[in-house]
TrEMBL record:
Pfam families: TctC (PF03401). It comes from Ramlibacter algicola. Gene3D superfamilies: Bordetella uptake gene, domain 1, Periplasmic binding protein-like II. Residues 1-24 form the signal peptide. This is Tripartite tricarboxylate transporter substrate binding protein BugD.
Length: 329
């Protein structure tokens, strides 16, 4: 009997040891996938690819790939990660949509607050109001006059219901007390293509996606959505919405990193540690600043603070979405 007990105990210890070795070896040789719930070429995709490069070294040089799973305002990609193996090899990079999905969707196949491990915030991204290159207006005053003269005929592009561009567009219409025809796309990339081509008139989108287009004079820029002017060379001359006469209009988009619920604590710590290293990487910071984004350096880089912040954002945006009467099935 004693021999049997010793054998069982030895087997149990061996299993625990193997499990500990497997966890200690994370990430090992298996690639890590960062799921972006929007199409390639969009602002969140750009952040993800820069972050993947910056996190590779602190994670031992492991391969980190980006997987675009676009659709349904980011909920398809988020659900994909929520249902993935909780081993740290499948992550989600999402923006403010994590806080707006609970208000936008009557029924989600996952819980934003309960089905993810929060790994830390990445950046804060201002937004810009831009127009097609052939638009007759050249400044915000001329733009509002043009909007007033063309009521019911203006097309406002966005990256889909729940996307940052959609939320900004809602607030913009509300601020001007006007209605525009919103044109949803499967991501900001195709929306930007049609804006440049003149198929749509306006779009409000993140600086990570608009800065290079503004710099290249492929679109017209009218204002930024921050409380203060930006210092990025291509954007420094743009007025804030407040300066342009739109009161209390401030929208900043943020990005955070997530893992499936149940991912072991030592694995999430390794990921959080790697994220902190990446956020101090001079090359990553330079790339983000060049796009008008600000890399997070406050307490939101901590897992618990990240989760607390998103909960506060859910409480902030849900009543706004409800008041606008916008819902997605």
């Amino acid at each position: 009997m004693k021999t049997m007990i010793k054998t069982v105990a030895a087997a149990a210890l061996a299993t625990l040891a193997l499990g500990a070795q497997a966890q200690a070896a994370f990430p090992g040789d298996k690639p890590i996938t960062i799921v972006v719930p929007f199409s390639a070429g969009g602002p969140t995709d750009r952040v993800a690819r820069d972050l993947a490069e910056a996190m590779r070294k602190p994670l031992g040089g492991v391969s980190i790939v980006v997987d675009n799973a676009a659709g349904a305002g980011g909920s398809i990609g988020a659900n994909k990660v929520a249902k993935s193996a909780a081993d740290g090899h499948t992550l989600l990079l999402h923006h403010i949509g994590m806080a707006t999905m609970p208000g936008l969707y009557r029924k989600l196949p996952f819980s934003v607050e309960n089905d993810f491990e929060y790994l830390g915030m990445v950046n804060d991204v201002p937004m810009t109001l831009i127009g097609k290159p052939s638009l007759p207006a050249n400044n915000f005053k001329e733009l509002t006059a043009w909007i007033g003269q063309n009521k019911g005929q203006i097309n406002l592009a966005n990256a889909g219901i729940g996307a940052a561009s959609h939320l900004c567009g809602l607030l913009f219409q509300n601020a001007l007390q006007t209605q525009m025809t919103t044109v949803p796309y499967k991501g900001t990339g195709p929306a930007m293509t049609d804006l440049i081509g003149g198929q749509v008139d306006l779009m409000c989108d993140q600086t990570t996606n608009t800065t290079s287009q503004i710099e290249g004079k492929k679109v017209k820029a009218f204002a930024v959505t921050t409380s203060k002017r930006l210092t990025t060379p291509a954007l420094k001359d743009l007025p804030t919405m407040q300066e342009a006469g739109v009161k209390n209009f401030e929208v900043t988009i943020w990005h955070g990193l997530y893992a499936p619920k149940g991912t072991p604590a030592d694995v999430t710590k390794k990921l959080n540690d790697a994220l902190k290293v990446a956020l101090k990487d001079p090359d990553f910071i330079k790339k983000q600043e060049g796009l008008g984004a600000v890399v997070v350096s406050d307490k939101r880089v901590e897992q618990a603070e990240h989760k607390k912040f998103v909960a506060a954002e859910i409480a902030k945006w849900s009543p706004i979405i409800k008041a606008a009467g916008v819902y997605a099935d």
